[in-house]
Structures are given as structure tokens and as C-alpha cells.
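Hi there. Long-time user, first ticket. I'm pasting a complex I've been working with (about 1343 residues overall). I'd like to know whether the download I got is complete or cut off, because the file seemed smaller than I expected. Thanks.
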Amino acid sequence: MTLIRRLSFDIIGLPPSPQEVQAFVEDKSPNAYEKVVDRLLNSKHYGERMAMFWLDLVRFADTVGYHGDQNVSISPFRDYVINSFNDNMQFDQFTREQLAGDLLPNSSPRQKVASGYNRLGMMSAEGGVQPKEYLAKYAAERVRNVSLVWMGATMGCCECHDHKYDPYTMVDFYSMASFFADIQEKGIYAGAHASGKWGSSINYPDPELPTLLKPIDDQITQLQAVLNLSTPALDEAQRIWETNNSEQVGWRVLAPLQATAEHGTKLTIQTDKSILASAAAAPQNVYTVTAKTDLKSITGFRLEALPDKSLPKGGPGRAGNGNFVVSELRVFFGEKADAIALQNATATVEQTLAGNATPYGKWSAASAIDNDAKGSSWGWAILPEANKPNQMVVETKESIDGNNSVLKFVIEQNHTNSGHTLGKFRLAVTSAAQPLSAKKTQGLPENIRTILAVDGPSRTDKQKSDLTAHYRSIAPSLAETRKKIAALNQQKVQLTKEHTRSTLVTVAVKPRAMRVLPRGNWMDDSGPEVTPTVPHFLRQVERAQADKASRANRLDLANWLMSKDNPLTARVFVNRLWKLYFGRGLVSSLDDFGKQGTQSAHPEILDELASDFIDSEWDVKQTIKTIVTSSTYKQSSQSDEASRTRDPFNDLLARQGRFRQDAEMIRDSVLSVSGLLVRKIGGRSVRPYQPAGYYAHLNFPKRTYQHDKGENLWRRTVYTHWQRQFLHPSLRAFDAPSREECTVERARSNTPLAALVMLNDPIYVEASRAFAERTLNEAPKEMGPRISFVFQRALLREPSVDETKIVSQLLVKYEKDFREDPVAAKKLIDIGERPTPENLDAVELATWTGICRILFNTHEFITRN
Amino acid sequence: MLQHPDHETMRATRRSFLGRSTAGIGAIALGSLLRPDSLLGDVVVPKWHGVINPPHFKPRAKRIIHLYMAGGPSHLETFDYKPKLAEMNGKPMPESLTKGKQIAQLQGKKLVCLAPQWPFQQYGESGLNISSKFPLIGSLADKLCLIRSMKTEQINHDPAHTLFNTGNANPGRPAIGSWLTYGLGDSTQNLPNFVVLSSIGRGGQAQPIASRQWSSGFLPSRLQGVEFRSRGEPVLYATNPPGINDSRQREAINAVQALNKIHDELFDDPEAATRIAQYELAYRMQASVPGLMDVSDEPQHVLEKYGTKGADGTFAGNCLLARRMAERDVRFIQVYHRGWDHHGNIKKSIETTAGEVDRATHALISDLAERGMLEDTLIMFGGEFGRTPMAQGSGRDHHIAGYSYMLAGGGVKGGVSYGETDEFGYNSVKDIVHIRDLHATILQLMGIDHERLSVKFQGLDMRLTGVEAARVIKEILA
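Hi, the file is complete. Here it is re-exported in full:
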């Protein structure tokens, strides 16, 4: 029992369920233990547990740390770490991606996220920061981090002087720093406290986004098929719509016989029967166009003003802004000297810009058939619709029989502001019933207007399908389908937004000069300039011949760290893994493999594990399996005064370690046992309950903490928002580090503050209540079996007689007490956002909440042994 | 030399305190099983006696109240009068002083002298020259020790605070208060040994203060400062949950203790015994806090003297609380006033901020003196850096090359000033006191040789005073 509990805590950071314990105890097969190891290593929670360990090292946090300690979005990096451990990514690759993901050939978005490692250090937006000083701070911190994380080396002291005990020199320090001199960054992120811009970042969709979008896309595809499906009813409806919306039923485009202009302007008839003006542009002009039609009863004319690339701003006019003014349109029939009487002029657009300058209040179509009653300067114009087709429609007062006689159109353009003449236009006639209106097609997209202007038979296939597609987009009978699609699309947008996070990444730029800073003084430029070089006394970076001319980069550094000839990295890492499974490294100074580090009592174990780690192609899970299946791991943690006196720190490994859980695991265990735990992997950082006013010391900007709602309250603690300057006080009380710098080893303190957290933090009271609910719902009704149930779930064992007595005594007391004070009972069970169940007796629930609270507060509960 | 600073050292020591055996706590547990109420009096709570025991020197101070004027108070309007600067008002600052020197927000700006904005006057028999905006502090001149030659290295607030509090600008080192408990042991078991109080003030931008300023760094976290808050529960999580009154809480703790004792008996686990002690301390702390925070037992004239109605989150209220904590044996009490960053309109800002601290500081010092506690209580008063003699508009920018600090009580001379800046108040030129020298002096007053309070961490012997040579300012010791 102790063994599977230990294993479960060590590998996934959560206690086993009583069922898992039972299954293990009952499994008599020789590899029963190994099966559990494999199951746990394959659990998705394994990655979360490993991330707790790794994120301390690489100082991952959700805020910038300096001064205003503002938020910065980099949570995808945390998920990258979790997923990489879960995928059992080779440790050498894991290293390369973090140090130099951006430099890998064709680096994937995931590798770019990994390169966020270089951006995890603290940053400042404090006014008055001298950029050069902070660039020096950032550079030094990177050397401290990379040397501690991968080399177990305390190079930090070499910022100001050569190492006192190890052969590291100042030149080594700054040469290491220059590996990182290519990182795009700023000394001060001025204004970032307001803008949130902390340098290079990408938007990174959650890996599960495509999976989440798939069902929506499938639905959209189905609905789209409905929209695309032709039915006779729909086709008929479209025909009617076309009739109603297009003049083309009656509009017959006229093929001009002749088109002339004055003042040397040239009019050319185009293949689409339109007329294009070119050559001299006159201040004013009159165009004359003749054409014939056999239409029986002409009821109106249409003048289309069309855009063309040859015209200023795309036309349709020749004025600099693409405008024109048709001051008068006159149409003559046959030999008749008088123009045809026209009425009811309309246009798709009538310019209102500077409309007050005209007696009509706008540049209306009406003023183009008024016989210049109010002056010859006014007419129809279209601004701001340059580069768009528009049209003007007029009715004949009486219908005319075309009879293949010549129709002469005189288009006068007499606006006094010179140059406002038509550039491209087209004429048409109709016999459709009056009233006619140009405005019928308004509101239709431009391309649809254009298509509608073409005779049905002359439309291209593309035009036909565009028109159908458009109709399907407005057909009333399809409204419901379209609404559904729109809602789904909205859902997609929302989902994509929710599942896309911005994250800091490394972008390589031209490396800045890096020099040795005498005594670490950033203002002193007298030191020699250095280039990327690993510490001088170690084997140097090996590079392909082709690269020798260029300077070494971060990828070279990563490759050097993970070279099979470099045993240091493996030893450092394996030693830290050992710590996870024994509470203490084989070399107890996890942070120092130098001369000042401690000696291992079992150097041969470390050597063998490290070389196996390298030989296994850096297989982390394999190495863990080797450790946890060893007989050393499976030993009892029981000690007595004699054995402790002989070997107080257990250097000889004659017993297992016994130690308090890490901060995250304590909370996670409580959530797990109570049933509150939400087992979702990854995502934005979450905000659990936190005492009001805890951020009162923050400024730029001032902050008010708002805890999350719903499932985010009960996520694993590795997802908790990590505020560097004010880490969640519950986590601090159990020694979680601020992550302002690399933390190789957390302290394991045992303090009154931690006791207060366990007793009084609302999450632990809420979890006690949830655990109590579970007990009342799942356990038999009698007191004895219920006590047994809470011990089994929380401590995975039966209570002793004495323990039962203690608990049942308190139970009786609480029950009586809460019975007399039901208000207090209600208050207790109302703590937390989890809804208070209606079906349970409040006094009974409060009583058991009190009991479950006791169990969570026991030393045994938070101890791994 | 200590091999490892963390739990192991402290646990090993605790173990010796507990004197565990079958006749120890375990026996108590069994005997008390069925009557957990009776446990309370039986719990042996181990006390941390520190790694420096006995002290290196006879301590001159038992405790420190650190009045932290955060933001960088101008020495030129408080403790360091410069008539020459008045003469030079509006004229360019001599380039010989400023060339190649660090500068903050005045980067690239024209550097012009700004006269002291308030007159100074001589106070007391000692005739110390102090700002007219500190009339009450001035009236205590003969008890004060002014250091007018301070020097720091960090010109931006955040790292400058970190340097002042931990001796290093990089995060991760223990604060002064943590070092003191580590060295000297627990001064009280009912309250934290290291307490932080904070007030914002009405003028200027409130300084952000990171919790790293009271972090225990690489020392065990039980040594960290504990913040006492003016709003919400005074100490985080030191309030019973709704529905749990004191007796229910006590019963819960008793039951936890009883279960832990059984566990300890069964597994012979020293950590369990420690846990029992910590739960007892937690209960005591929870019980002590309300009495500490409730000032209704203070006579009216005392409240008036401080200028406060009680624990209301003002600097005055916090000074009163500091005295109450001092009386309850809290060793290091840090009281922040966050309103000293006067980039603009320094004349008005000084008036506002000095007005907020003058009366309460005076009240605290004289109150302690009246109670006979000033002689073993060291008062520290000052900020992370000073301000430029050069104008930043109508204000002053950050300045590190010279500024002032005030000490009083606990083993320092009264009515003296030490060190000087140049006639512009730019550079400390005589008897320069670096932050680390101040640290060394504080430790000395508390009975500690600063070179012998060290812990091995990341390959270095870490000390509050760092690797550079630090000097105890013997000249100011009484």
C-alpha cells in the first residue's frame, strides 16, 4: 500500500484511488508492480508532475517579475513542457528545442513555443530603466540559468570575478552570455505595462483546436450542402427574384452605331458595347451616341457609368477623383427635332457630397433631365463611389416604338468645375412596365449588380453560379439554414479565440556585441569583446566544417550540452530525477557539481544511471523506470533513532526517503480525494481563491484579483497563475518558489503559516465539504463504516481503534454543536463556489466537513513515505 | 560551516530540542487520546535558538523597527542641507560631477540645479540641521544619528529595494529580518519574528513593493517576513473559516494533534513532531493577532500622539502597531511608507509625505523612549536611494551616489551626523557608507559579526553583506 502510494505521488503527483490500491494488492502476477509503473508513466498526469519540477528550473511564471510585475502570456510554454514529458521526448531534443527551437531547420510552431525558454527571465517596464544595464542583467541571468539547469554549475559568481573554487572565469561567463546575444529583446519594454507588448511573440492555437473545430466544420459542411442543393422550388424562386431585381429582363443593351465627342476627345466602342473616352479631356463636353433598336414599346433608358483601369481613380468619370457630372441627358428619336420627353429619373447613387452647392440639395439624376431649368452646371454625379459601376434610369413619358429607327443620345457635361466628364458608359433601353427605378438593385453586391446587368443567355457559367450562390445567401426559404451556419461560424471564431494564446518566443537577430564587464559593471566598456564559447577548460563545441567561419550559436550550445561525450548534463539531470524519487539527490548539492558540491556515497550508481541515460537516447521514462523498479526505491522509509544517528540524511540509502509533499501536490491531493479535481490538461493559467487585497502592493497598473469561476477553481495547481512578486500565499507557505530565478531545490519547511493554510484556506474547507458529500453519498450510513471510508480515501488504510475513537468523539461533539447552531453549519457548508447540495442534511454535512478537514490536516496526508 | 541551510539543519536542531523518546511526546499522545482538550498544555513547542548562540558580541539592540521610506526620499529636502545648491538654482550642473554617471529618467536631458525647496533649521542641543518639514522629528535631534554619506548601486526602485533588503540586487537572497531570525533564533513564539506593515500615502505614485523584499530567499521559508494587513484578515489565513468558531477550531486542532501523535508514535517521525509544534504555534498566532491589532486598550493621548484612530492602514496606525509588536517581542518590524517617489512637484510632495510621517515617527521614538524601550530598539528611517540635485521639471530623479539615512536608539549615538556629500549633495565624499556597511553595522548592533553569519548556497558562502568588504561604522556606535 505504502509502495503504490509512494509510486503514484512520485510519478503523477496524485494519490492512487482505493480501487487502484486494491487492484495492485490483489494482482499476484510477478510483474504486478511493473504494470503499475507503466500505467503511471503513461498517465497524462505524469507530464504535469514533471512540469512542476522542470518549471522551477527554467523559472516559468505568468508575470515579468520586475517593478510592476505585469502579466505576460507564455502559458503555451508550460503546456509544451507537460506534453513533451508525456510524449517522452528525448531529453536532448527537449533541450535543443528550448535553447534553440527557433534555429532548428523549418522549426514548427511547437518548437517556437519551446524557444520561449529564452524569454522566461524577468523583464522591466519601469520608467528610468537604463536599457544597457537591464540587457546586462538579462544576459547574466541567462548564464546563471543555463549553467545551473544543464551543467549543475554555479557560474553566477563569475559575473564579477573568476570562480573561487571551480575553473570558471569571467571570460567564460561572458562568452556563455554571448551565445544568447542574438535574442531579440529590449532592456526596457517602455509602455508594456499598458500595452502588454513584451517583445517577440506568436499566436499559438491549442493543439486540440482542430479536434474541437472538426464537429462544427462537419455541421457546417452538411448545412452548406443544403444551401447548395437545387430544387425546382428554389430555382423558380430565384427566377422570380431575378426578375424583380434586375432590369435586364427589359433592359436591352444598345450596340452603338457611332459615338462622338467634342474638343478632340475620342470615344471608342468596346466589345461589351460600352464606350470608353480617351485622348484630350475637355473642361466640358458633349457626347453623342447613336443606336438602333426594334423594341416595340420603349418605356425607359439606362445610362451606366462604368469603372475602367485607364481612368483616374478607376473612373467612371475623367475628373481626378473619378467623378463626372451628367448635366443633361437628351434622347432624340428618328428625324424628330424635339427630344423625347423624359420623367422619373433615378440612380443607384446620387452624390450628396457638396450637395448643398446645388439647387437640388444633391447631385441627382433628376437634375440631368430638367432641361437645365435651374442652371446647366448641375447634374448627376457619384462620389464617393469611384471605381464602381452605377447607373441612372429614366422613363419616357409616352412609350415609343423602336422600329429600328436611329436613337440619338446627347450627353451634356457642362459642370463648371472643369473635367467632370464621363470616362466609360453604356446605354440600354427597356419595354418593362413603369415605374422603372435604378434603385431596385441597390443593396446588392457590386458583382451581382454587374451580373444582373447582363442578359441571361449571355452570362458566363461563373456568373451564373455566382448569381445562384448569391441568391442562396438571401433566399427566404433558406434563412433557417443560413442562421445555423452563421451561429456555427460564430462558434468557430469564439472557440478559436479561446483556444489561441499569445506566447513569447525567441527571434534571432544580428548578435549584439558582448564584452567582459569588469567587476560586473555594465558601464565599463573597457573589457575585451567575446564570442560564443563554452567554458575554456571543457571540451569545445564541435561544428561542421562548413560552419566554422561563422560564430557558434545557441543550437551549437545545445548540441554541445547534449553531446554523448559530455557526461555532465546527464549526471546533473539523473541526479535531480533521483531526488524526485528519494527526496534527496545522490549528490545532495543538486545545484553544484563543482568542487564545493557534496560527494556522493554511491558514485557508481550515478555514473551508471547517467551513462544508461545517454545510451538510451536520453529516454527519461526509461530512466525513471530503472530507478523506481530498483529494490532501493522499494525499501521502507521507516527509520529509528539509531539509524538516524548513524546516517541522519540517509546518504547511504539504507532506507527510503520520507518527506512532505510539494505545495502543488498537497492541493492536488486534496482536490483528488474530495472528487473536486478537474483533470483537464493544459490551457490558460487559472486563478484559484486568494485572500482579497493580496495584490495591494502592486502598481502600474493597480490590480484587483478576481478568482475564476467553475472548473478553473479545481484544476491542478501547476496551472495556477504564477505571480512572481506575489505568488499565491498558499503555495508560498509550502515553499513554492517565486521563480524569479532558477530554483534547483525547494526548501521543505514546516511552519505555522502552512498549518494556517491547511486549516483556513477556503479551498481546503470547500474540498472538505465535497469530501463529506462524497462520504454521505457513497459510504454506508453508520458512523463506523463512514469513518473507515474517509480513512480509506484520504490515507488509503483503515483507522486504528484509537484513531476511530478520536474521530468519533469529535463527530459527536460537532454534531451536537452544529445541531444547536444551524446557522454556523450552513455557513461552513456554503464555503466555496461549489453549489451546496440540497438533498443532504446541513448539520450532518457540516459535521462531516469538520471531520474531513481533520483528515486533510494530518501529517500523514501530506507526507510521502 | 553549515552544509545545508534548509530543513535539515533546522530539523536536526529541532530534534535535539524535542528530546524525543518513548517517554516524550508519544507518551503524552497516548495519555491524552481520549481527552484531546487536555492536550493544549502538554505540547512542547520547540524554539529555534539560531545558529549564533551565544551572540558574537553583546547585543546593543534586541529589535529593529525599520521605517522604510520607499520611493527614494530626497536627502536635499530632509536631512542634507546644501546652501550652494540654492545659489546654483537654475544653473547647469557641473559636468565634472555628472559625466558618465548613472542616470534614470533624466537620460538625455539637460541637467540643471534645483535649489532645496524647503528651509532647514538647527534642532536641539546638538544643532543638527534638519528640514523644517520635519519639525517633530527635529525636536528629537539629540536622539538621532544622521548618516549623510549613503551610497547604493541600483538606480531603479525594484532592484534598489532588493539590494537594500537583501544585500543583493538579484532576487533570491534572504531579507535582513530572515537573517536575524536565522542567526539569533525565535524572539517570540506567539507571533512571527519578522513582520511587514505597509501604507500607501496620499502623494505621488505608490511604490510597488514585491514580496521578495521580505522573502527568506534560500533560507527556510518559516523565516520569511509575515505581512500584517490593514484590510481583510490581518494575517493571511489566520482567521477561522465561516462557521468555525474558536472552540470548533481548537477542537479540530486537538484532533489533528492527537492523530499526528499516534502517527509519530507509530513511525517515529521527527517531522511529525515538528508538525505538531507548528499547529500549536499556528493556533497561538491566530489567538495572538486579534489582541495585537485591537488598539482599544491604548489611552486617548497615545492615539493622539501618533495621530491615528487605530490600526487603519495609515503610516501612523502602523507605527503604533510596530510599538505593540515590539512590546510583544517581534524582532524585526518593517513599516513601509510607499509615497516617496517625487519625480514632479517635489515641494508640494515633500510637504504631503513628510507631513504623513513626521508626527508618527516622532510619536514612535518618544513613546519607546518613555517606555524605556528605545535603548534596545534600533530605529532605521530612510529609503532605497536619494534624489538628484538636478531638476526633473519641478521634481527630482533617482540618485544613488549620495543620500541620507537616519538611525536612532538601540546602541547608536544621538545628536550626531556622520559623513558628508559634496556641496551639491551629489556624491558622498566623506566617510562613505555603502548599503553593506549599514548592514554590517545593524548586525553588529544585534550582536552578530556580519562575516560570520553565512550560509553556503550555489557554491558561495552567502552573507547579507555580500562578497565585497563591508565596514562596521564604529564611529556612530554609542
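A couple of notes from our side: The mean pLDDT of chain A is 92. The first helix of chain A runs from residue 2 to 12.
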